[in-house]
Amino acid sequence: MSAASSGTVPFGARLAAAMDEHGPLCVGIDPHAPLLAQWGLSDDARGVREFGLRVVDALGGRVAALKPQTAFFERHGSRGLAALEEVLEAARSAGTLSIVDAKRGDIGSTMSAYADAFLADGSPLAGDAVTVSPYLGFGALVPALDLAAATGRGVFVLCLTSNPEGAAVQHAVGSDGRSVAASVAAQAAEHNAGASPLGSVGLVVGATVGDAARSTGTALEAVNGPLLAPGVGAQGAGERELAQVFGAARSTVLASSSRGVLAAGPDAAGLLAAARRSAAEAAAALRGPR
Predict the structure, then answer these.
(1) Selected catalytic residue, list 46, 103, 171, 277
(2) For residue 275, what is the domain's CATH number?
(3) Which of 43, 88, 204, 227 sits in a 20 to 30 Å window from 129, CA-based?
(4) Could you tell me the pTM of the whole model?
(5) Is 67 a catalytic residue?
């Protein structure tokens, strides 16, 4: 079940069930210009709409989650956002969890408005979870965290990302002696305390960040929430790399693949075969000895 609303099973539990059924794979829906051209689609709102709906049609009910990247829709204005709304509705109809990759982060009433847009019941832009940025302070995310909890949805908080520029912020040490990343993970863990099998506050942790978790003192195994991990399997990180990055937390990893699967389109059978192959590769890499 993918539709979230008050009183539903929490997102973390629904995601854990979907991962058990379909494997630990989330497929991104990233209709960037070169990929649209490869699929024979126009670089406009009509093209991104067709792209997104084709992905949902091919993979809906067959993968643990789908993750539309909002920027590729937003760049086409109001028509692009309307296309995103249709893609999210299609995912709901297919019974597939959706993670809206918006990476929003602000303070006060602005953060509350972002929460309403992506997490409120009845919002056409609401998926089952949303990615958020904690770099105005983790406490600034409270409107999103509270609304997600109230509606059975989830959030994924940026923690340790694979871009080189991220380390300047994420590895920085505060006055309490903890790194920013360690603090983010610890506060996520507080929100997930007592949840089973997974809490609904996850982290975004790149699968290719090496020993960053260890070197920054970031206790991923204590988070008790899903770890959204770009870079698993065919994308570059295998069993050895995952053991270094995630250690004992590997059972909570949701591998994220975009181009690795989408490059097999637009043929639906090709997309499904690529997704199943990526899910199998991710599962094999995440099962290795710890």
Answers:
(1) 103
(2) 3.20.20.70
(3) 43
(4) 0.95
(5) no
